């Protein structure tokens, strides 16, 4: 059985993330979507909220081989715990490759875990969690970049930060 891990901050999960996750679910026996907690980042959503949002978003897909969880440790430790042999990362643009390549080499050195890069769907490659939050903070319409459920959660979270 081949187990893959799709780590990310997912703050919030975007249509681009979902595209990569769904494609992985077709390629691997089991896919772990892992909210990676990064102490250097200040997320809009809590770890638990991100996990719940991802689970809710994937609920209707019918993919029975996706597990959603989180970790505040090294992603390689998580991979070893669940028996994953590959980390899958979506790449949007050239800058993503440069940033992700270094991490892929470190992960292979630490635990012998390979990283597979999936190119983003060209229709979605401009979408990132940071861009979506920035657009929404300034009153822009983020529908079509996030599932409707996530748009609603994002708007509620942003209103709470303004109050």
Task: Explain how this protein is built.
- The protein is of the alpha/beta class and 163 residues long.
- It has helices at 15-27, 47-58, 75-82, 94-111, 129-137, 148-162, and strands spanning 3-8, 30-36, 66-71, 86-91, 114-119.
- Strands 3-2-1-4-5 form a five-stranded parallel β-sheet, sandwiched between helices.
- The termini are far apart.
- The mean pLDDT is 94.
**Largest sheet strand order:** 3-2-1-4-5
Oligomeric status = single chain
Q: What best-fitting shape do the alpha-carbon axes yield?
A: globular
Low-confidence stretches: none
Structural class: alpha/beta
Please compute the radius of gyration using only Cα atoms.
Answer: 15 Å
Q: What is the share of helical residues?
A: 40-55%
Largest sheet: 5 strands, parallel
Mean pLDDT: 94
The end-to-end distance, rounded to whole angstroms, is 48 Å
Task: Note the beta-strand portion.
Answer: 15-25%
Helical run tally:
6
Number of strands: 5
* Helix and strand pattern: EHEHEHEHEHH
């Amino acid at each position: 059985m081949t187990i893959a891990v799709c780590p990310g901050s997912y703050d919030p999960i975007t249509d681009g993330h979902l595209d990569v996750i769904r494609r992985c679910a077709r390629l691997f026996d089991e896919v772990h979507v892992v909210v990676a907690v990064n102490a250097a980042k200040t997320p809009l959503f809590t770890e638990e909220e991100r996990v719940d949002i991802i689970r809710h978003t994937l609920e209707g897909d019918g993919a029975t081989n996706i597990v959603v969880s989180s970790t505040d440790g090294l992603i390689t430790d998580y991979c070893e715990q669940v028996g994953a042999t590959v980390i899958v990362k979506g790449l949007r643009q050239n800058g993503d490759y440069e940033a992700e390549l270094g991490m892929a080499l470190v992960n292979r050195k630490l635990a012998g875990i390979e990283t597979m890069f999936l190119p983003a769907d060209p229709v979605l490659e401009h979408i990132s969690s940071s861009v979506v939050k920035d657009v929404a903070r300034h009153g822009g319409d983020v529908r079509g970049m996030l599932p409707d459920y996530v748009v609603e959660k994002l708007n509620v979270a942003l209103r709470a930060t303004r109050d």
